[in-house]
Amino acid sequence: MNERLQKAVLQATIRFADAADRGLFARLTDKATPETVVEWLRGVEHIVSQTYTGKRKRYVNGSALVEDRTVLYNPRFLEVAEDFELLDVVLHEIGHLFVWDFVRDARGKRCAHHGSEWRLLGWIVGYAPQGSKSREGRRRLIRDVEYHRTNQTEAWKRAVMPLSLLYALRRAS
Measuring CA to CA, which residue among 163, 119, 169 is closest to residue 26? Predict the structure, then answer.
């Protein structure tokens, strides 16, 4: 794993641990304590894959193999991506693994890979929870989400906070 990817993985680990510590995953799951999240993240494997070929080489930046708890990264993307784009992809792919391992719907079933739970997780840890057809459009989305997360704007609070606060109050009583 190259140095930039290691740095992005470390930043992602810190963001997930911080969110767990602040109780922000309460809206998604009650299994994600800071200790379990950090231990779980240690088990995630990050691999720069040489298997991206053809069209896939151009458009796919990373892939989460949920059953193996592994993230594959496109080496071509690693060469051209800026640090904030790389962090977004790391968070995005770890988000898939997190939702697969920790989150269940009301019926106890696993959630959709790009479902509402995964999108909420994007608001919590700071990856753009939707796609864009252009690289510049994607960059704009990443910056917007990061702005809301960092400044804890009203939009971010509406998306993340209310149910986690209710959950905390319910647990306290």
Answer: 163
User: DSSP letters of the chain?
Assistant: --HHHHHHHHHHHHHHHHHHHTTGGGGT-SS--HHHHHHHHHT-EEEE-S---HHHHHH--EEEETTTTEEEE-HHHHHH--HHHHHHHHHHHHHHHHHHHH-B-TTSPBPPTTSHHHHHHHHHHT--SS--SSHHHHHHHHHHHHHHHHHT-HHHHHHHHHHHHHHHHHHH-
Residues 61-117: tens digit of each pLDDT: 889 999 999 999 999 889 999 999 999 999 999 999 999 999 987 778 888 888 888
- How many domains does the chain divide into? 1
Domain region containing 92:
3-172
